[in-house]
Amino acid sequence: MYKKTLSGLTLTMLMLGNLLLIGCSARPSESDARSVYENQLGNLLKDGTVKIKSFKKVNGYTMGETFYSLEFEAETEFLKDYPSKCWTNGRWFWQCGPQMNTRNANPKGIIKVQEEIRFRKTENGWKGPDGNVY
């Protein structure tokens, strides 16, 4: 009886250990990258200026032991006009926000974003460019 309890306890501990390992991400996920993208859009997303229609990881690769680069494609719909200097040559400039001068605004519409997010490995996880650890 004692032996069965011990082996059952051992089995339970091994299963819990495996679940913990599975839950830990070896690399940043698509969900992590989407969170970074949402955080970088910041107030534009919160105030209803933009809406993310789709977000998909298309590639990812390590850069040494310290960095992981995740490439993604996203369709971002602008529900209100936005400054034209925020969107140039197919690239979105994160520092743009609703406080910018909209005198030269582009009309509402969907833009396709193809970008890369670089994460840095830390003791606590992967740190994104938004300053959060994932």
Structural class: alpha+beta
Alpha plus pi helix count = 3
The largest pleated sheet is described as: 4 strands, antiparallel
Looking at the overall shape, the CATH architecture is Roll
Overall 3D shape? elongated
Number of strands: 8
Number of domains: 1
What fold name goes in the CATH topology slot? Nuclear Transport Factor 2, Chain: A
For this structure, what is the CATH class? Answer: Alpha Beta
Rg over C-alpha atoms, rounded to the nearest angstrom: 21 Å
Mean pLDDT: 78
Which regions have little confidence, pLDDT < 50, spanning 5+ residues?
19-23, 98-104
State the end-to-end CA separation.
44 Å
Describe the structure concisely for a colleague.
By secondary structure, this protein is of the alpha+beta class. It has one domain (28-127): Roll (Nuclear Transport Factor 2, Chain: A). Helix content is 28%, strand content 38%.
How do the helices and strands line up, and which of them pair or pack?
Blueprint: H1 2-23, H2 30-41, H3 43-46, E1 50-63, E2 67-78, E3 82-83, E4 87-88, E5 91-92, E6 105-106, E7 109-122, E8 125-127
Antiparallel strand pairs: 1-2, 2-7, 3-6, 4-5, 7-8
